[in-house]
User: What shape does this take?
Amino acid sequence: MNVTRDGDTFTAEEGGTVLGAARLAPGGGVVLELGETREGVALALLRAVNAARADADEVEQRPVSHGSVHLQTDDQSAVVQLVSRLVPRVFRSSGTVVSAPRNGWVTVYDEVIDREPHQLARLGRELSNASGLVVFTIGIEKDKVVHYIALERGRTLDEYVSVPEFRGPLPPGDAIALRANPTVVARLTGAQPGAIRSVARTAASPDDLPPADLLLREISLAIGLEGTHVRFDEARYLPGALVVEHE
Assistant: This one.
């Protein structure tokens, strides 16, 4: 897919076919016109717009964090109700996006999580505890580290950090505990333990691992999670997504 720009209009094409377009609107908004519902088209257009804005403003890129909460259910309405009730109790947020069911999971994105990655675990634990469901929180911290937590009924069953000591030194036992447990993940998700073991690697430095976005995609694919690369400001454009606004 190729995205081109003509003034304030960005066009996504593939094989000579126009898939969609985005144009800048007054006040800084973006108007999307999509010829089909592939989420990748909207994401490619939005990222081209954001990159153009950054170039125009000569903004120095800061390390980016983003994450999402995945609930093992096909009931989007039930997740919307949970989010409406619980999110304001966890942190002050202006809005949350709840995806349509994908591969047996409904995903939650929130604007606070992308700013404050430590809030991801809090929200995941509250949603798992209230719903009784299997929940995965997963994301990237500061463009460097992949972090996931697997929960069931609010209890942490597995936690993985690609660079265990990224936040500071840990006792040897604690560092080892932050390696993935493929057996647990397989029990919770039906994933193949060998696949989890091969991609959920750890190292002393991010430089010793693949780029975090690639590592995130590989781990997500092995587990069966979709949309983990999506940021909050992109999530509302996912097909079937619902936006929950908080007062």
Observations:
- The longest helix spans residues 39-57.
- The radius of gyration is 19 Å.
- The longest strand covers residues 17-24.
- The mean pLDDT is 88.
